[in-house]
Amino acid sequence: MKPAPFRYADPRSVPEALEVLAAEEGAKVLAGGQSLLPLLSMRLAAPATLVDLNRVPGLDTVEVTGDGVRVGALVRHAGLLTHGGAARVQPLLARATANVAHPAIRNRGTTVGSIAHADPAGEMTSVLALTGGSVTVASPSGERVVGWRDLFVGPLETSLPAASVVTSAFFPALPPRSGTAFAEVARRRGDYAVCGAGVVVTLDEDRRVAAVRASYVSVGLTPEVHDLTDAVAGSPVEKADWAAAGALARTLVEPDGDLHASADYRRLLVGVLTERTLTSAADEAVERTPA
Amino acid sequence: MTTKLFGEPVRRREDARLITGRGRYLDDIGAGALAAAFVRSPHAHARIVDVDVDAALDVEGLVAIYTYEDLTGPLAEPLPVLIPHPQLHAPRTGYPLANGEVNHVGEPVVMVVATDRYVAEDAAERIAVTYEELPVVVGVDASRAAQHAVHEEIPDNVAARHHQETGDVEPALAAAPHTLSFTQYVERSACMPLEGKGVHARWDADDRSLRVHTSTQASTSVRAAIAAKLQLSLDEVEVIAPDVGGGFGVKIVHPWPEELLVPMAAIALGREVKWAEDRREHFISSAHERQQRQEVSVGFDDDGRITALDVHIWHDNGAYTPYGIIVPIVTATQLVGPYVIPVYRVVVESVYTNTVIVTPYRGAGRPQGCFAMERTMDRIADALGLDRAVVRERNLIQPDQFPYDHHLTFQDGRPVIYDSGDYPALLEKLKALVGWDGVGALRDDAEARGKLLGAGMALYVEGTGPGPYEGGHVQVLGSGKVLVSTGLTTQGQGHETSFAQIVASELGVPIEDVEVTTGDTRRFPYAVGTFASRAAVMSGNAIALAARGVREKALRIAADVLEADPGDLQIEDGVVQVRGTPGASIPLRTVAVLSNPLRYAFDEAAKQATQFATHDDTKPPVAPGDAPGLEHRDYYSPLRSTFASGAHAAVVEIDPATWEIDVVNYAVVHDCGNVVNPMIVEGQVHGGVAQGVGGALYERMAYDADGQLQNASFMDFLMPYASEVPDIVIDHQQTPSPLNPLGIKGAGEAGVIPGSAALASAIEDAVGRRITSMPISPTELYDLMRSETAERTAALDRRTGVGA
Fold first, then answer.
1. Which residues in chain B are closer than 8 Å to A262, comparing Cβ atoms?
2. Which of B112 and B599 is assigned the larger pLDDT?
3. Do residues B286 and B356 touch, judged by C-beta distance below 8 A?
4. Domain B32-134+197-244+251-285 annotated CATH 3.90.1170.50
5. Is the peptide bond before B778 cis (omega within 30 degrees of 0)?
6. Summary mean pLDDT of chain A
7. ipTM score here?
């Protein structure tokens, strides 16, 4: 369990990092290393070069505006978890980040890194999707914004070319009259979820259900957002049949089985977690809807 | 015996060192050593057609590559069958490096030695081994079906057929008012010490001596094995177990291939060589335990009293049998637990599979035996509509029946005769501790919260402290320091504290003056090892006897000096004094100085013992039959094992939406005779319970049909975190053992034994479906609840609408 030989680059700017990435085939970006280093140690990955972003200035900030939260490439999960401003604008961020592994991993692992890693068992890929977020990608040809739908291609696979660096992720603010919630079932506390669910409920001005969206963790090959509005559309929020939304969700997902959960069990959890999170998200939506 | 420290919850003296990074584990030794890495079989069963090392030869830093062809003499022979047994009719062991065939994924094929571990792995990766795959046997059922053979010349895959019986079981079953027959399974798990195995060897060519550090539970026997296999004289080999980061059984197996190959390379290369096992290696090439298929038939009367018990077990022993059939024997003999079983027959067929070897893991077959017996009790209760505690109570051996002879032969070849115990009192304490009679109210409360609550219990008896012997050496230095050594090893049990407590108490010295060394053949060359909950019983008593020998000599010398009768002397706080005569005293350290008549003095203290300072010229300085120095060596060798006991109860809450299982209460009543240090015993119980909960709810070795271990990392092998281990409440009972001077019984394994049985019972109680296989996970429980064929239990009648 020792990595194969690799070259190590220690750039001081994004252009410098891009230079190395463009010049060296099979180069890989290192940020928090919480997924990459175990892969190296198991020799499941053997990149020729690691491009360590940790000494690039300016990537470690969380910017909060009324539109949303921009998270720099070197912001650790722990930093996002405890960021009060981010939680006010998009409460889902802290709620989901609290489910990312253990404190030691959250202290090193980065939110953007876990998105770029594109693990369908990761919480933040799902949150990026559910909030309709995007990433900013720097490449030798310039900087561009890539929406979540165009980002995730498959498990551990993004659409980004090798010579690119995700410099930040943007999570839009929680819309008015909306509430969110996030919940997971894991075999042990802090493990990758057997199933996780994030939801957003939006009400109309009369506190009737206007929109319900959900995204799941460890369900499917890439993050997806499921529209569950049909199950509860127009229902007064206090009478909404969240179980019906859960039942609808069960029909929409296509989970796989693995060592820790059968596909059926995951489907069961999709229903249960959907109902539970919607109940809680609806409460928040009510609080955020003027009577 | 003074009891000043014996029995006190003295804080572990080694912890400050171990938890602040000052421990010296295997990988802390030999920073400049060459590193070994292994090419291991990727196939579960295959012939080796060719080993091509060419591509590795140009790796910079490569020092040597060894294959089977490089092994000579005894090293080229199969590894030893450590514990032969007449019923082990077809033993097989592997070779240090595979000889033409591999029988499990992870079997070592090639050893690479290089300047560091990174380079060694680079070279290993380039070695091309060509295999011809053979049919693979995974699991007891496939092995039993014997469509394919693991070892060609053993077509039925049966290594051993272990059989014991105490009477004619078939007529007894036929005559029973009621009978039940059922089949159940226990899955594989493993010890998983946080420190894997590891070996460091240094050959001193000038001195012709080999010093080996190994993370072992049996340094003296590793020494003997190395000497035999490398054809060295025993005096040329010393083996030391440094700080060892957990063993739990896996490190009692020896010699591991690496324990021979690393010293071999060190001698051949004239360089220090080290191998530190990584986690993946530990998963696929150390040892596992626990998988069994159990078929049980029981006869019982209207009151639930057992009249006959017939058990047939198929035990998965993996690819080889280096540790003999110890686990099958332990299952067979410990299964009977605290109960009177009038007629008992047990057959354990130990069968080969193309998987990692199976050798003792904490509990060593007892958890499976307990599972068989305790689940039998649950089924009898279910069949008769009786409380599960009542059925157990009616079958218990009574306090006036000791010594109780089960007429079975234990793993040490000696009779299973329980020396002492009070099982009805254990059960009463357990019921009180867990609130057994109030479970109904808890159930209602849980139901109101939408949860299913269930309770279960399991009792066990554990044979501990088997022989043949251990020894202890105690020496008082002129400085007052008391050196204690014993040959068995320490892998976290707190021996530096508990053994020091024993010596401090026996000798009457401050514990601060006592230094304990374990597992170092330079200090104590005769030992067996640390396993089977035996260290406190065996070395504890040996050390106590050694301390008593020192005390006797000290009193004899002091009596001379103080002109008193030795019987009038006492030792307190390191000072020998005449009882009731203040001032008539001599420090023990001075006694130590005087015990060694000197010609030369190097310090002030020594002057007292030189030839012109002593005046009695009527006797030789060292009397005939006496020896210089204030020291004594003694041994303890028991007639047979001593039997500890205990009872666990678990209360679980299950979420009927997600089928998550939460252990909300876990109660333990524990009886290990006289307790040296209750804090250490409680720690042992906690650790055992953690492993019991792991084995019941989280851990399994997930082999696929090709013999590939699917979860060979801590990401997928779910060893419980602290957050998964329930709070544990403990009550103690002490029925001293009459077999040994200190009256103690072993405590090391107890905590793990009843975990699966108690938790299966609790889950079954909560959901009303029969649990026939452990461990059980939420996804499996969901399947069970949806199964149309799953047996409904009487507990189901209590269900009122929560859940399924």
1. 779, 782-783
2. B112
3. yes
4. yes
5. no
6. 96
7. 0.96
